[in-house]
Amino acid sequence: MKYLFSVICVFLLCTSCVKDQALTKADLYPSLKSENDSLWQKCADRLYISMQKQASYLLGTVRSLNGNDNIKLLTEYGKEEENIRPNVTAVAGFAFLYTYGDYNPLIVGIERNELKEQFIIPMMRCMIRKHIMGRIRLTDRSRWGGQFQSAHWAYILGRGAYWMWNDLPKDICEGILRIVSYEADIVLSKMPPMQLEFDTKCEENAWNAQILAIAPLLMPLDTRCELWREAQKKWVVSAYIRPIDLLSDKNIDGVNLSSFNEANLFDDYTLENHGIVHPDYMSSFILSAQIALDYKMRGVEIPDFLKFGIQGLYDNLKYLILPDGGLYYPSGQDWRIFRNADWILNHALMNMIFQDKDSYDYANQCMDTIERMQERNPQGNTYSKGEYFFSSTQEHLLFWWCNAWLAMQFNKTSSLKSKPNLGIRDLVYGKIVMNKTEKSIHSLSYGKNLMLLVGRNQKDRLFSPENDSGFGTIILENEQPVGAKLKNISLETDSTSFKALLDVAYGNRVKGVYRISSSNDTLSVQETLIATSDLNIKEIATSSFFLLNNPYWIYEQHKRIIQTPKNHFVFNPVSKKDILFSANRLLIDSSVVIISSTPLNCRYKGAETSEKARYYDQLCINYRIEKRKFLRNEIVSEISYKMIFK
What we know:
Elements: H1 2-21, H2 38-59, E1 63-65, E2 68-73, H3 81-99, H4 105-108, H5 112-130, H6 150-163, H7 170-188, H8 202-218, H9 225-239, E3 251-252, E4 255-256, E5 272-273, E6 276-277, H10 279-282, H11 285-289, H12 292-296, H13 310-318, H14 344-354, H15 359-375, H16 393-408, E7 423-427, E8 432-436, E9 440-446, E10 450-456, E11 472-476, E12 482-493, E13 497-506, E14 510-519, E15 522-531, E16 535-548, E17 560-563, E18 568-571, E19 578-588, E20 592-605, E21 616-630, E22 635-645
Antiparallel strand pairs: 1-2, 3-4, 5-6, 7-8, 8-9, 9-10, 11-12, 11-16, 12-13, 13-14, 14-15, 15-22, 16-21, 17-18, 17-19, 19-20, 20-21, 20-22
């Protein structure tokens, strides 16, 4: 009964406030006048065409709910992320196109007014109806609101409404205000969570800050506005706090850094999510940085709290950016690796906020890839089937682009020529060392996820960031495969190379000693496996790497070729081939050479299906399948090889 009473009270309070506190025409953004230079405008024009194509595809997925054309959505009816986030991001994108840009109905497929009447209003009405504040019907268990991430969804819905406020019916406006104020007050009542290891709260705090930004924009006369604004600062700053900041007496727009009791970023501007140092989550700054658009569009200087911490994250990401606009994942990737189209927002925002001199070139790399991706699909969709598995991938992409296009209206290219971000990157707290040249990337991750990853610094990156990369597995008789776990490491770096000595354990009965060095475009590895007790080994599959071999990706050749002095193997995508061979020299796709003074026992296993929206084959260069007994302290295996990138 207490819960029922509370919800009814909040509903009545919000309903009574919206008429008097709502946004008026005078509060809307002024007419958008581009302040950018011709190069950024050209990029923005290209992006707007892609936005319309993406919208055309998404419109084809919208349907009426139970035959009612006044209520529409593009997912199954429900309250979870897969039911709400795709709808709010899509409708916000439609609202943006309705208001901004050189709209072309021949690309989108319908006139602007039809977009509003036939899609935007019915979809917004559906999202309002499904929210807790949409109507008093507590027995409806399909309603969303007050749950994890719902503040983020409400922000996106509110942002879409804000972009076309004066063209929305009164009931839509009032419903949006009820939702936004409800979700904003929930965030207002909480303290930002903090966590440094395994599962940073950086992303969560950044998206919760969003609702505290849109609420005062939509309700500028509300008595809670000052509370929302002050809390917004706290949530934004909390997302990017490092341990070193906790010792600082610095004040960021009224937020004392020392007032927090834990951090979300390591001191070297890396972070952990899902147990790995995760570049995707290092990009979480795009959530809070979107708020800076509200200041730029009003001609107001961007406040310091929106700048705090994010330049350090972006500087790290620059070393991970590949020529196709995608990211390199030195600790692994449990999402997609081909997120190239998403990252254009990173670069647009960093130019708008910091005038970053590298951002224009990176944005154009993304734009080139976006256009090539869309060329494959007459329906206009950017990502093809099989390239993603997250429910709102196609829809949220349009919303990212809306913000990127807006940011580009204020961007300028630097008079300084951009230089490639190359050389050694030693991330001590993230426990990653990386050597990036014009041809290749070598990285060693020695934190929670041990990984020796290599890649071509080309549009066809060749290698995939899978678990056990560079190390592989061992199977003892009557046991399951075990991967390598780090016991100790000694690491040396200079400006052009790194050397590492690693002691690792394969389970509790095999020790691995690895000597790894990276210099220029050559990676050298010595691997020694030693029995730490008497044992019987069934299979050795170490020094294992994973080769991307996708049937659809635009920059791959849709086959991999392995050449040895005696053999020439061609592996098509999803070949399911399983081939054993021995050689002291291997040539991969005429671009990477593996050489050894003694023959390497190799196995190449073609993919059978996709994993995490990518297809990859496995190349193991120390493979033995035989039952053999080893005594304690006996050397099980010893190999040495060099990997040279041409």
